[in-house]
Each structure stands twice: as structure tokens, then as C-alpha cells.
Automatic annotation (TrEMBL):
It comes from Coniophora puteana (strain RWD-64-598). This is DUF1783-domain-containing protein. Keywords: Membrane, Transmembrane, Transmembrane helix. GO terms for cellular component: mitochondrial inner membrane. GO terms for biological process: mitochondrial respiratory chain complex IV assembly. It holds the Pfam family Coa1.
């Protein structure tokens, strides 16, 4: 379609030129020339109108811009893209050593955990039924009453807020009980030692040691009335 339009427009232009610049013929052919000229002009106008409509529908492409191309003769080398600040002469502040503080906090934390563990284990031994039976046996012993007096009770310690301290261990599954604790009366005070073992599983515990050693050096063997365990 575009090829036909271009051919038609070229033909119309050629006819128009021939009509315009053609020498005037003789008088007898004036009517024919006028008719040909008018038809040629109409065809030219129609062709120009078609070309103008085509150009309005399809605007011309913009001209390509020419860019400057920069070429290099060698590979580029890395260079600094900012100015390096001058070195500062001011000394930096010294950081405080925090190791002593961390070490102190660690020691305090471990000490607190160990103290809690020992206090909890002591409270478990004090509340044990074995310790309560030993205290009852000591209170009923006439030898202990003669040395320590009346109102025999466990001796409290200040760092346990008045509770007694029971040393040793109670390991019934392994068949081993070894305890020691201090008692006092209105006459004096002393330390009770108790040791009992079980030779075989299913057998009864046999007391090996159950005695009181007073602060003045007297020793009393407390014979149990029956098996304490």
C-alpha cells in the first residue's frame, strides 16, 4: 500500500509539473488543456493529502544522538577516589581493662552457687529421718544427760541463721551413712559421730560408731536401743 501511494504521489507531481510548465498549446485545444490541468491538480491535491495524513499518523523518527566515545590506550589502574585525611596527632583514649570486673563477678557467682548448694544439702541432712532418730536417742541417753545436762539440743551456727550444721552424707542406696553434728546442754557441748553400713542388699544396717565426744575430752559410747535405720 505504501509503495502504491509513493508511486501515485510521484506520478501526480510529474503531471503537475508537466501541466504547469508545459507550453501553452494552440487556441483550439484550450478546453482540453484546461480539463487536463484541473484533473491533474485534483489528483495532486489528493496525493498530497494522502502523504500528509500518512506523516501525521507516523511521526518521523528522532535523529540518533552522537555520543563521544572515550578510548584508552592501556588498562586502567585503581586510584583513590577521595582525599585521604591527614593523620591525627591526638592520642586515642585508652580502654579500661574489664577483666578484673568480669573475674570478680565470676568468683562471686560461683561462690554464691556453691553456698546455696551446701546450705541446701545441709538442710536436707537436718530434715532427714535418720538425723531426727539420732537426736532422739542422744536425748534419752543418761550418760549424755550427766555430761551435758538437761535440754540437749543441736548447737545452732550464726551463718545458717540459727540452724545446726550436719556434716557427712546419707546414701541409703549405697548402704552408707556417715554423720557428725554438734549438740549442747546447760552444762556443756560436744560432737556426735555416727557411722552405719549395710553389707549386702536387703540386709539391715549395722552401726559401727555412735559416740559423743565432749569439749572437755570425755567420750561416751551411745548404745542404740534398736536398729536406727
Amino acid at each position: 500500500m505504501s509503495y502504491l501511494r509513493q508511486t501515485l504521489s510521484a506520478t501526480c507531481r510529474l503531471n503537475t509539473r508537466n501541466a504547469v510548465f508545459r507550453p501553452r498549446p494552440q487556441a483550439r485545444f484550450n478546453s482540453t488543456v484546461n480539463v487536463n490541468t484541473s484533473s491533474a491538480s485534483r489528483r495532486a491535491q489528493r496525493a498530497y493529502a494522502t502523504v500528509s495524513e500518512t506523516r501525521s499518523r507516523h511521526p518521523p523518527r528522532p535523529a540518533l544522538e552522537e555520543h563521544d566515545v572515550e578510548t584508552f590506550s592501556a588498562p586502567s589502574k585503581p586510584r583513590m577516589y577521595y582525599a585521604r585525611p591527614p593523620p591525627s596527632k591526638m592520642e586515642l583514649p585508652r580502654l579500661k581493662n574489664r577483666w578484673p570486673v568480669a573475674l570478680a563477678l565470676s568468683v562471686v557467682g560461683v561462690s554464691a552457687w556453691a553456698a546455696f548448694f551446701y546450705i541446701a544439702a545441709n538442710q536436707e541432712r537436718v530434715a532427714s529421718s535418720i538425723t531426727q532418730q539420732l537426736l532422739a536417742t542422744v536425748r534419752d541417753s543418761p550418760e549424755v544427760g550427766a555430761l551435758l545436762g538437761d535440754v540437749v539440743r543441736p548447737e545452732p551456727v550464726w551463718w545458717l541463721n540459727g540452724a545446726p550444721w550436719v556434716s557427712g552424707a546419707i546414701n541409703l542406696p549405697a548402704g552408707n551413712v556417715d554423720l557428725s553434728f554438734r549438740i549442747k546442754g546447760h552444762k556443756g557441748a560436744g560432737t556426735v559421730y555416727f557411722t552405719s553400713i549395710r553389707k549386702a542388699k536387703g540386709e539391715a544396717f549395722q552401726p559401727l560408731r555412735f559416740r559423743l565426744i565432749t569439749d572437755d575430752g570425755h567420750t561416751v559410747d551411745i548404745l542404740p536401743r534398736a536398729s536406727l535405720i
